Amino acid sequence: MSADMPTARRGAFSGMSNESFLTLFMIGVLVVLFAIACVFVPNFYLLQNVVNLVTNFWFVIILGIGVTFLLITGNFDMSVGGVVALTGVLSVWFCQGYHVSQNALANGLGLPYGVAVGLALLGALGIGAINAFFVARLKVPSIIVTLGTMMVARGIAQVVTQGAQRNTSLPDVFGVVGNTFVPGTSVKIAVLIMVGLVVAAFVVEKMTVAGRRTYLIGANAVAARLSGIKVARHLALLFMLSSLLAGVTGILLASEFKAGLSGRATGYEFDALVIALLGGVSIAGGFGSVLGMFVGAIILAVVTSSATGLLLSPDWQFTLKGIVTFVAILAQRLALDKRKG
Amino acid sequence: MNQTGNVLEIRDLVKDFPAVRAVNNVSFDVKRNTIHCLVGENGAGKSTLIKVLTGAMPRSSGTILLDGQEYSPHSPRDAKEAGISTLFQELNVVDQLTVAENLTLGMEDTRFGFLRKTDKISAMVAVMNSLEPSIQPKMLVSRLSVAQKQIVEIAKAVATESEIIIMDEPTAALSEGEIARLFKIVKGLRDNDVTVIYISHRLDEIFELGDYVTVMRDGRHIGTKPVSEVGDRSELIKMMIGKTVFEQYTPRRDACQDTILECRGLSNHKLHDVSFDVHEGEIVGFYGLVGAGKTELARAIYGVDPYEGEITFKGRRLPPSPDKSIQAGIALVPEERRSQGLFTILTVRGNVPVMNMKKISRNGFVNAARERRVTLEYIDKLRISTSSTEKEAAKLSGGNQQKVVFSKCLFADADLLMLDEPTRGIDVGAKSEIYGIVRGLSEEGKSIMIFSSELPEIMNICDTIFLLFDGRLKATLRNGCDIDNEKILHIVTGGEVT
Prior knowledge:
The complex is a heterodimer.
Chain A: H1 18-40, H2 47-55, H3 58-72, H4 80-95, H5 113-137, H6 142-160, E1 165-166, H7 176-179, H8 189-207, H9 209-219, H10 221-226, H11 231-257, E2 260-261, H12 268-278, H13 290-309, H14 317-340
Antiparallel strand pairs in A: 1-2
Helix pairs in contact in A: 1-13, 1-14, 3-8, 3-9, 3-11, 3-12, 3-13, 4-5, 4-6, 4-11, 5-6, 5-11, 8-9, 12-13, 13-14
Chain B: E1 6-17, E2 20-31, E3 35-39, H1 46-53, E4 61-66, E5 69-70, H2 76-82, E6 84-87, H3 99-104, E7 110-111, E8 114-115, H4 119-131, H5 146-159, E9 164-168, H6 176-191, E10 195-199, H7 203-209, E11 212-217, E12 220-226, H8 233-241, E13 259-267, E14 274-279, E15 283-287, H9 294-302, E16 308-313, E17 316-317, H10 322-328, E18 330-333, H11 337-341, H12 348-351, E19 361-362, E20 365-366, H13 368-381, H14 398-411, E21 416-420, H15 428-443, E22 447-452, H16 455-461, E23 464-469, E24 472-478, H17 485-492
Parallel strand pairs in B: 3-10, 3-11, 6-9, 9-10, 15-22, 15-23, 18-21, 21-22
Antiparallel strand pairs in B: 1-2, 1-4, 4-5, 7-8, 11-12, 13-14, 13-16, 16-17, 19-20, 23-24
């Protein structure tokens, strides 16, 4: 191959980076899956349904942002589901009236809503700080650390709710954020926040030095350190960010249901992981994108909602999700290998 | 079995790699029940020869006779079954298992896949305890010293009735007392019908231990002699270096005056009280054999590894961390290009600017146009052969990958560049290009430290040469005047400095 041969002449996709190629490929997969669903599921093609596909999944997508960034550095964050539950429960408990009932679960700390939310988010950051300390400082593998904090976070939520939930003696203001709609639509504020966060994450990833560092650390952490990147500090910040995003999700969900459940968001850490992988993020680090994760989320949404539309028993949904994940990721590998030749 | 004659006969052995013949028509014999030493500079072909002998690599041509029979192992296991065991520098023991489990590893007696306790273990333990009674079979190997681990490996080799045991620099990590004990064991092996092929950089050991010595240089066999017929170290050294001509070095006209880096009393796990100065615009070389402490010195200065002592850079105390070193104006081209220097899965553009992101960004946002322009500039400047800025670094040749690592460091605007084995694994053409780059930088007034185990490289471009042995700075030489290859090799192999 000559050094200055124009790359565009080697086929339509060859001028493109592997990442763009993979994102485009997964969009193709999404279109095919959507077409199949439209054939078999009545009314699947309706605009309202398409909007629902995106909006019903907002919480997993927010979690997916932090999870994707960490995966790109070669780290896992399995604690996000636990942090959602913890933050939700804490915000409720802090906000519930002080000494208003005989029932222990109806009594809280009686703090103003803003303060309650702030403190609950501090709790989320606390979990992030623990992750950061063990992974970035003590170099414990992230999968172990975050599985630990996942249980710690959910465990605290269970203690606070005595294994059930807190949903009484809450001020009206508590339910506002989660139940406000964008005027004239059925789109919740939470969805708007999600879109904003995805856009911001996309900008950070593609256009900032911090985004570059994230990839560099994942591509080769040793070389990154020798190139003057403060690897530990960057990882710590990402773990804090991931927990903070999970915290925001927890606040929004608690507000939507005006309740704090210790069992909220069970398994969401896996959903967040699955959509990132569907979007082409590599577990080995150094590769992937938030945009890909977003496409992955819609793929998962199409599969689950068409299963519901086909009146498939919910018992089968897990298996179906599993099969789709497998097939999609295999297809990705094949496409990428073929491209590399 | 006959007790005299040759146990191993090597004839016309050749091993080719792409672009280099690592073993070139080597022929020599190893006499039965002797200690046969193998010496040569780094890159002389010793390791490749051993890899062929132990089945880790296939030969390109030639014959090897073991006990008069054609011997061509396809794997280390074949070699072992034929009676050749090897004690590598990286010991082949499993830390998490006990001594007894390690002894029988790979040779376990099983029934239906379950381990059986047999007398094999006790036989092996008996052998081991005859070598070193203090090691208990139930001890965890992780709790043994390096010397004790070696003994476990030797016991394993003896118990499996190896005829030949190859030892690759076994004393590199031992203390003096341990070395004496190892020598006793090695001599004991010879007296018990085992032939030992012994590789070492420490020439004194050869006189103390060896019966025969074979010298290799540039992949060729230079000679095999009984050690008793070798006069002294200098004769061995002459055989090792031959008549190398270093015509390329031209002494600089103006002497460098201003000191840029001062190191005083650097010590850590590997270094002992190293002190030296580097001047502005000077190219200094650190020469020593593998394990002399070159990489450790570079890493200490750069702030990767902890140290005691004082480093002053441009008149200020240098804080020990890579990011601060870069800010102060130091950049390192690390020893291992692919694992420490390069981001192989990223593009050329993703690699070149990483050590100085400030220069391609504003307020934390990357200026993509400038990033691309800078990358093109370095592709052009260092003549990196790549189809575009978007090519994955992994797909470049070794020489071009090294140029990308150089680009990173140059873009960091460093005043002092540390180059650790800058031309390792690079073809001759790229090598001379890199030397050209280094000379050019020096003319621009940059200071350069080269850490290398290739003497010609050091002699070619360095103004000042520091010789390292065993973590100590042994001598300082001015290139172009008091250079004597024999003296250099004498010092870096542990000889007294006169």
